[in-house]
Structure formats: C-alpha cells, structure tokens
Predict the structure.
Amino acid sequence: MMTDHLVAGAASADITPADLRGLNPFGPDWTSVHDPLRARALVVGEGEAGERVALVALDVVEVGDTTALRDHIEQATGIPADHILLAPSHAHNSPRVGLVPPGGMARVPTPESLAYTALVEDAVVTAVRAAAGRLRPVALGVASEAVDVNVCREAYADGAWGLGYAPDGLSDKTLTCVSLVGEDGAVVAVVMNYAVHSTVLLGLPEASADLAGAACAQAEDLLGPGAVALWTAGSLGDQAPKVEFLSAQAAGLVTGDGGERDRAFAHRALDAQGHLLAVTAVRLARQGQRRCATAPVRGALRVIPCPARRLDVPPGMEQADVDTVDLTLTTLRIGPVAFAGVSGEVTVPVGHAVMAASPLASTLVVTNANARIGYLPADESYLRHTQAADGCPIAHGHAAATIVAGLADLVGATLDGRAA
C-alpha cells in the first residue's frame, strides 16, 4: 500500500508558573525561577489527510490521568485521543499536574497544583493546535550515540539496596534522536530520548526544567529560529545525572546551604551536562542519517488492569486502596520508529527487554507517558528491595512481563493494521 509524504509541524508554549506557592512536590516553596518551563508539541501526519499523531513534551515532574486532556486535544484538532502521547520530563524542580490514577502511588495534588494543571492543559491544547497548523513536508531520520552524563543510582551498601552513586551498575547511555527535516534542509523538530532523572538542581529552591530543559533549550539555540527540541525520558527509574547537587553535597563537594557557591556549582553542572546532550542531538539531527520522506503514521493505546500491591506510602504521596491498578501503554509509530510509552518509571532492564521484544528495531521507551502510577522495575528488584521495587504498585511477577508483552503486541498492531 502506498503511503503519502510525511508532514510535520511543531510548536511550544510557556508553562512557567507565575506564582510558585504550593507547587514544589518535594519540599518548601521555590523562591525563584532558574529557567522557563515549556510545553512542546510535535504533530506528524501521513500526507495532508492521512492519520496523525501528537507527541507532547512537558517540563513537569509527572502527569496524572490524561484521559480528559487527550479527549480535549482530539476535540480541538481531530487527532484521536489514542494517537496522543504526553511525555513529562520528570524534572524534580518542576510542578506535577493532574490527579493520581487509582492504585498508583504519586505525589499528592495540592489546590495550587490543580489550578496550575488547568493552565498547563490549556497551553498543551494551544501548542498542539499550533503544531497541527504548521504541517509541512518533512523527511524523518533517526540516529544514536552514547553520551556519558548518567549513572546507575541503585547502590548496595551496608547490606541493603538504596539510592546512591553506582558507576559499575547497569546504565544505558544511548541518546537517540529522531529528526524531522523540511525540504529546505531546516530542522522542524528533533526528539531526544535518554534515560536520566532531571535532578541536577534538586535541593535548591529554584523552579527549573533541569537537565531535560537545558538540553532542549540549548539544542533549539543551536538549531536556530523555528526549530523545536522535545525531550522524552527513557528508562530512567534507576538512572541519575553524573553530577547533581544532592550527590555533590553527599560527597562534600558543596556545603549544602544553598548559598551562592552551591548554586554556581549546580548551575555549571546543569549547563555542562545539558550542553553535551544538546550538541550531540544537533549533530545527529544534521548529519549522517538515512532519511525517509514517505512512511506510515499510526497510534495505539491500551489500558491493562494489573493486580495492585499496597505500599508503604511516604509523606506527601498517596495510593488508593484498590484491587487493580491500570497500566497505560501507548505507541506512536512514525515509519521505522516507535515511541513506546509506559505510565510509570521504567528501569533499564525493563527498557532493554521492551526494545529486544519489539518488532521495530528503533523502539524508544518513554517513561511516565500519559500517566504515572509509580516505579516499574524488573522482577529481581522485588527480591532486592530496591527503591524502584518498593515504589512499584503492581504485584511481583506482573509489571515487567505485562509491559514487555503489551508493548510488543501494541507495536505489532501498528505494523499489521490490527486494532489495538
């Protein structure tokens, strides 16, 4: 079957809160804004009248249930709700939006965060509508390169597993970039996929898009006016930045008082690591990629009830007492690339298993997509009582297997035309 020429459009909107009170999910109110927060939207279609999908990258720590928002986007643009993937960066110095899915464990919404949610949702709809209005013929390219700015954070010490700095632990340093390039050679959009928590500034009283935001902002600056850089968080559940404020404090590199020297250290770490990611992304977007200008565009979404597991809920978080918790899997296929979204924090072993099982070689795992229910680790993590396992709301033996099989089938459905 013949496919039409790929078309794509991208846009962004500012979602920086005007009032910082009540929005910090991890502690006292932020006192300043280090850098702006943005919602970035990419719409890709198969010709002018064919299927369309939308990818929305958000500078927020997490999203709750996005069903109503995706329905609103469909009403505004005609893009089906199951062809929309909302990808929060998981930047910890940014607010959360939405309500916690039943059975999931996530940060408790505040009245201020719910008011902020309404503002973000309006901005998202505006950005997607603007992106859909800018469709132009493009060619798609995909390329990868290792970038060493992350490290395994599951460390074994004093007879137990906990969060730490584990340079010998399993880490995936692959930065994969999907670029959409216009007929004039200008980059319309580049989508970055990388496994790392955006926690460089965590512990400082500054709102920030953190590492994901720094990488995107610097990439956009290098690409020039009109280009939009979108961040998709990969299998980050067990991955931290190589240099971050809190780990530097633990190592005695900063005082921890949040003063001028502490901030200068953290800002340099943010800029340097973001620069490495941005420069690599721009190089991959501009050079050495085999591009395709005609390709099928498909989307699919499936909600799978899984046996729930009651957790020890720390202060500031909540989990409803239910028998099952919904796992949301989303796939956007653009030619040879599949964005494989999971509604929780996937760890590297699970991400590797998803990619190995997928029928498409270029399958990119997107963490916390369209919702966040908690961590989603491999089965062996339950036996070790890792941070990820102790924060997983799905019973042992069900999370990884359901994710891997479900996404393989969902990607397959976009290949052979089966209903999701």
Summary: The longest helix spans residues 260-286. The mean pLDDT is 95. The chain is about 30% helix and 30% strand. The two ends are 20 Å apart (CA to CA).
